[in-house]
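W.,

You were right to be curious about this one. When I first looked at the sequence I had no strong expectations either way, so I just let the prediction run and decided to look at it fresh. Below is the sequence, 326 residues in total, followed by the output.
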Amino acid sequence: MKYLYVLVSTEKDIYYEQTLFSILTLRKFMPDAFITLLTDKATVENLVGWRSGIKEKINELVVIPLIHTLSGKERSRCLKTTMRNVIDGDFLYLDSDTIVMSSLDIPDEFKGEIGAVRDVHSKKVYPSEWDKIKKLNFTPYYNGNFFNGGVLFVKDSEITRAFFKRWNELWVYCTKKGFHYDQAPLVRTDYEFNNLIQELSGEWNCQLMFGINYLSNVKIIHTLAVNSEYLINCVHPMMTHSFYKEMRNVQNLEIYVYENIQSFRKSFLEGTKIISPLCDEMLKTDAFCILQKIYLKIRILFKIINLFSCCIINIQKWFKKYLSRQ
């Protein structure tokens, strides 16, 4: 089986560093793994100097020529939604922002064509993703299954190749509507293929912000390090851009990787909190997303809202105290 990464990167981002770090963690636990890197011509041309090191860590480099006018995000999603039809053999696809924490042999009892973990480890869709589904008019195609595309086990079969062909078609449709994300069209594709995706256990794609209960037996950690929506809630150094930028100055990357994954479980950032299921549900609401955006972009408005909330709470306390005296 192949272990597949997709890389679209320039010197200005950290996707190269993330992918290299993930590959090195995979090599630590599976030194003989057959690793394939799928990329585009523009990215290959800038894999020079320090950035050329990734070529030594892989077994297969597949380069697809793409239209140069496409943005990096578009090229990345294009490669991801077509990867089944350009790579031969069964593969386990891993996003760049993943960290391998153990051997990744697919269990024999898994008989599915495609395997994935639920997004944010929940049957409830995260508000921002649900918003995309609604705007694309995909709600009729949602049947309770919303999988995270960060880790995908995909068999090489006619049906999986047809699945990816349709996924790419729907992704192209979404781009014309102004959406370049891949998970919303994945929802509709899975619906059209009668729920072809089978659920993998959470340790195969432990989305750190939401799946801390999977850490004890974790196989793959998904840090979500580039997603600005989660960045303001960083709980671990490996979720920050600075962590990967520091890699550029490291002399021995193998030692750097080893030391960091060894200390992973005890290196959460100061102030990290475990929240209750009730708070978790609140974090997944549209109301929280709106407050979060106001806090980031219109701080004065957030302070006014907070002041108003404090007044309501004080009035409530006063009224409760008043009633107790009667």
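Here's what jumped out at me. The longest helix spans residues 299-325. And, maybe more interesting for your project: The mean pLDDT is 87.

Coffee later to discuss?

I.
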